[in-house]
Write a structure and sequence with these properties.
Number of domains: 2
CATH superfamily of the largest domain: START domain
Structural class: alpha+beta
Number of strands: 13
Helix content: 25-40%
CATH class of the largest domain: Alpha Beta
CATH topology of the largest domain: Alpha-D-Glucose-1,6-Bisphosphate, Chain A, domain 4
Shape: elongated
């Protein structure tokens, strides 16, 4: 065993490791930074590329002990990097990723190209990228993304990028500025505008999933999913229930409130989607508009295992459909950072979230139907595997022309 100390994404990391432990294994297994992907483990495919003292290296063939005292940057460490901000946007716009497995290494190599070769043409970019294998895209989108960043910087130089380029030319480590370690806390909520008049036609008096709008990006703040559900109870009674945070949490599978002071809560929510599992722990704040029967719950949290960070606004309003029926409209705006971010825009995940909204609606209807004074039902449970297979089957049926 060897004592090891290095700086990873601006944070000092120490530990005892076997002398033959590779840097990639150390980062994934010991530091829990799983954004670095291991594939060939022969230094060929480039998926494991990270920065060591500002230079790209293959972490699968670099011994961890060889990085003693060095500065290591993984894909999780670029939050404040001006080049990576541009590259991530360009990769999205140019459709430069599909499965996402090669993307961490591809982005790291692309950043190095933008730093070292400001005048590179497409031919040179392709040569520089040749050490990173992508099995999905055909490289056209990746090349176009890198070229678009280079061209944008030629047309309008960025002082922050220029400073990094000067450091590189002088042989210094052009490292991203480390993100500040912060505890997640509740956000100040903004009062929603008054609700629109209720629809004239009565909806079916059953809890049912809505025809949800497609997920969209809202002003660069994240992905948005709209949905809703119908319940056979008066709007006033539904709103009273929806204003009770512990009661609402009891209807949402995986949600647990650990502390509540007024409309501020701390707790966690556990999710499981296929092989992906996470438990986000954080805080949130609820702002209500009693007259409009609307509210917005804003919060943030962090997954202790993957270190992924999430921010989300859950807006909802209760609309009277008839004297004895109501509709709850839900708008979920969310963003993810870290290893789990690659799942946030997946169509399967978005369908899964809509099913969760529908499941939540059914649980609300069940709790409202309890006799007055009856003991609340236990915390809602559901089968993630069953829901996942249901979503997958619906997508297969749609693909072959059937109705979901």
């Amino acid at each position: 065993m060897s004592e090891l100390s290095m700086e990873v994404n601006g944070r000092k990391v120490t530990g005892d490791v076997p002398a033959r432990t590779h840097l990639g294994d150390f980062l994934r297994d010991k530091v829990r930074l799983t954004g670095t992907n291991l594939s060939c483990e022969h230094g060929v495919c480039g998926a494991c590329t990270v920065l060591v003292d500002g230079k790209p290296v293959r972490s699968c063939i670099t011994f961890a002990v060889a990085c003693e005292g060095k500065q290591v940057t993984t894909i999780e460490g670029y939050d404040n990097d001006p080049i990576m901000r541009r590259l991530r946007e360009a990769f999205h716009e140019k459709h430069a990723l599909q499965c996402g497995f090669c993307t961490p290494g591809m982005l790291t190599t692309s950043r190095d190209i933008v730093l070292r070769l400001p005048e590179a043409d497409e031919h040179r970019v392709r040569i520089e990228l040749s050490g990173n294998i992508c099995r999905c895209t055909g490289y056209q989108g990746i090349t176009a993304a890198v070229m678009s960043v280079l061209q944008a910087l030629r047309q309008q130089p960025d002082p922050e990028v220029d400073a990094l380029r000067r450091a590189t030319a002088e042989g210094k480590a052009a490292l991203p500025e480390p993100a500040k370690a912060e505890e997640f806390a509740g956000f100040q909520a903004v009062r929603r505008p008054a609700a629109k008049p209720a629809a004239a036609a009565a909806a079916p008096a059953t809890a049912a999933p809505a025809a949800a709008a497609p997920a969209t990006d809202k002003a660069g703040k994240g992905s948005s999913i709209q949905g809703g559900f119908d319940v056979p109870f008066p709007a006033a009674r539904v709103w009273q229930f929806m204003s009770d945070l512990p009661a609402v949490a009891g209807c949402l599978p995986g949600a647990v409130i650990e502390e509540q002071v007024g409309d501020e809560v701390k707790g966690k929510i556990a999710i499981k989607f296929g092989p992906m599992a996470a438990a986000f722990k954080g805080a949130a704040n609820l702002e209500r508009d009693e007259a409009a029967m609307s509210a917005v719950l804003r919060g943030a949290g962090q997954d202790t295992l993957s270190q992924s960070r999430a921010k989300g606004d859950v807006s909802y309003r209760v609309v009277a459909v008839s004297d004895q029926a109501s509709r709850v409209e839900v708008d979920l705006l969310y963003s993810l950072q870290g290893p789990l971010a690659q799942f946030s825009r997946s169509g399967l995940v978005q369908d899964f979230v809509r099913r969760m909204i529908a499941e939540f609606g059914r649980n609300v209807a069940k709790r409202l139907d309890l006799p007055e004074g009856a003991e609340p039902a236990p915390q809602a449970e559901f089968s993630p595997f069953k829901m996942f297979m249901s979503v997958l089957w619906d997508r297969i049926r749609r693909f072959f022309g059937g109705k979901a």
